[in-house]
Design brief:
mainly alpha; 2 strands; disordered N terminus
């Protein structure tokens, strides 16, 4: 009789504890991805620096001095930044293949990254064709901000958010790669330093906003099945992958 009574009492207590864990995890996610001064100060500061650099005489002189040093001392140009900008995201998806679990499942990672890239692309392209800053090598007027750098930092922030609970070194590696992309853009005489700073800030902030948007979708608690379909395509001139996500 005592055993039966204990069992009856234990079941609701166990369910209550389970609900508490779920609520705690949801609260942790919501708190973690809220945008506040603490987690947006760095990207907003970088963007502000880049914007000020468009008109500031002091920063223009600084940019010019850096480019003079680059052109005088570095003759070789590197194309590695064209590929390195995707490397942090490559680590995320390689981990999925290797069974290293991140914060979200593969389909949700694609969704978050896709949203980040959409935000980043819209902001970067709007600024490029509004600011019309000339590139250091005089190849065009789309220098501000650096799209390569923005792409690299979108992916670096994705890697950090997905795997920071596994190891802090994922964040170190991702941000090292992204910073290297920014350095190469300056070394290759394609961007001013302030272009790179703004691109980094836009990339980081785009991913943070994407996680916040995802969190808002998550807390709606709609019981929908999430599916992802990735299919190759070829049309005699192009080859690639198409991705469809339902959530």
């Amino acid at each position: 009789m005592r055993f039966i009574l204990f069992s009856i009492l234990f079941i609701p207590l166990n369910l209550f504890a389970s609900n508490q864990r779920k609520d705690s995890l949801q609260y942790k996610y919501e708190y973690e991805h809220k945008l506040n001064l603490k987690n947006t100060a760095i990207p907003l500061g970088l963007i502000t620096l880049g914007i000020i650099g468009i008109e500031s005489d002091g920063l223009k002189i600084f940019n010019s001095e850096v480019q003079e040093e680059v052109t005088e001392n570095i003759d070789r140009r590197f194309s590695i930044d064209d590929f390195m900008q995707y490397a942090p995201a490559g680590v995320v998806y390689a981990n999925n293949l290797l069974g290293v679990k991140g914060k979200h499942r593969f389909s949700n990672q694609l969704l978050i990254q896709g949203t980040s890239l959409f935000i980043m692309g819209a902001v970067v392209n709007s600024l490029k064709y509004t600011a019309k800053v000339e590139r250091p090598d005089h190849s065009g007027f789309t220098s501000f901000p650096s799209g390569h750098t923005a792409m690299a930092f979108v992916n670096a922030e994705l890697l950090w958010q997905e795997y920071k609970d596994v190891s802090v070194w994922y964040g170190v590696a991702g941000y090292t790669l992204a910073t290297s992309v920014g350095i190469f853009r300056v070394v290759n005489n394609k961007h001013w330093v302030t272009d790179v700073a703004a691109g980094a800030g836009i990339g980081i902030l785009s991913t943070k906003i994407s996680y916040l948007i995802y969190e808002k979708i998550l807390t709606r608690k709609k019981n929908r099945k999430q599916t992802a379909l990735v299919m190759p395509f070829y049309n005699t001139k192009q080859i690639g992958l198409s991705c469809s996500i339902t959530f």
